Amino acid sequence: MLGCGLVLAVSTGNDQVVDRLGSAADLDGWPLLFTIVTQIAAAGGLLAFGIALSWSFGREFTDGTVLGLLASPTTRSVVVLAKLLTHLLWVCAVAVVSVGALFLVGILLGSGPVNGDVLADFTRLVLLLVLTGAVVVPTSLVATLGRGALPGIGAAIALIVVSQVATIVQPATAAWLPFAAPAIWALFPEVVGMAQLGLVIATSAVFCGLTVHVWNRLELDRGV
């Protein structure tokens, strides 16, 4: 909805919106819609996915269910991995549904013919959301250590700030920051290599392992 509103504002010559979009306002059709939504998805995805994952882990402490959860026959590692897998499946569903809806919006806006470049852009947008959902795994660790969702949400906000600052201050090297790399790759695929995208997956895997490790060491009398 926000992307659609901004595209309509540009098409009607809204000076305030045009000034804020900068060079992106010179685009039209599918490139304009894609550029706007990619920037929204990059920051919004970190926040939305980070909040959801923080809640998934943090609510066990705030709701007082962690004691029963840790005492269940299911191993702690399985509990953590199940939460993370559920999160990843939900992220994939959100990515497909959101981008599918955006595609229909673009058609309704008369963005132009659908060609190979348009399909490639939308494929990158789906992967952007999936990678963004994967790279917020540190929030699960922070929520666990902080015994609640709020610390994890704070970590998600910090990831957004760090990514934005790094992209503005050092755009040439910001792609090596795992939390900024997916957005930079979606907008400028030619400047981001497989090694940098691989670092995104590696970061997610490392924090998955750390979260499992912390849960395995949780003490029941300190779980609330």
TrEMBL record:
| The entry's keywords | Membrane, Transmembrane, Transmembrane helix
Q: Which Pfam families match?
A: ABC2_membrane_4
- Where are the membrane-spanning stretches? 31-53, 88-110, 122-143, 155-188, 194-215
Q: From the Swiss-Prot or TrEMBL record, give the protein name.
A: ABC-2 type transport system permease protein
Species? Actinoalloteichus caeruleus DSM 43889
